Amino acid sequence: MFKKISIIGAGGWGTALAVLLSEHRGEVLLWGHNPEVVEELVSQRTNSAYLPGVRLPPNVYATGDLAETIDAGLFLFVTPSKATREVACRLASHAPKEGIAVVSCTKGIEHDSGKLMDEVLSESLPGCRTAVLSGPNHAEEVAQRIPAAGVVGSKHADLLDPLQKIFSLSSFRAYTSDDVTGIQLGGALKNVFAIAAGVSDGFNMGDNAKAALVTRSLAEMMRLGVALGGRRDTFFGLSGVGDLMVTCFSRHSRNRKVGERLGRGESPADIQASMKMVAEGVPTALGAWQCAERHGIEAPITRQIHSVLYENKPPHEAMWELLGRPPKAESDSHAG
User: Fold this and answer.
1) Active site residues
2) Which end of the chain has fewer CB atoms surrounding its CB within 10 Å, N or C?
């Protein structure tokens, strides 16, 4: 069904997906906006800035020209969330085919609008059919074909089977769901909670405190996610608890590392200035807190991370405020 696949975004995850999907032996085209990265991908077949130690297979090609991607049957969007709308509008200017399949592989919430990435893509690419891919998938491991699993979601039932087949590979197991909202919220919100888990690591608070924090993060994810339209059971799946666990505990997690550096006293501005890749939890903390306020949802962890990142609150004050909150029943679905 998809003889050519275009991947929009040549960061670590986009490059890893190109390597993974090359197993189908069809043409995989990887688009990047950075001329230096694209030049290295073309000439050296490597991406040392975003995924060092990995070489592109022979059937993966790179380009910096969006027009070259337009004849694909399947598009994967792997741009940072804050750039998704702008890049999608640029792609739309090249008049892609009506009904093309576009899969969002980006985990984020758009500022101010509160829209999820499938909504942004649907608005920017009228006539496309959207889907999403999420789960506990670090690019470093996926590119090395270390076993992993993810979930593909779409409101278009006829897309689920072909997309599941595309992503069902020797080292990757794909599940399906029609809960597009829940899948995306799980993938986006876990990045905010990973920053909180990293702060705990930076303070050397220990395993007990971190386990409690991650458990309450899951409760907050479900509370906010259900209020925004996701199904509760989705957050017990790969894009919820699965992604939450790997992002809060993995050495590969950029968001956890951001939190750890915050806990050790570095400023948010200095941390972001030093990073090549986007830690999606930083912009998502803003979008998630806006959504929580808009809907009147109790979200204490999100609120504190937002305060640290955007209101200059010292991380130790945020952590102690969380610990000092009034006691509540664990089973209360409205409890923070």
Assistant:
1) 190
2) N
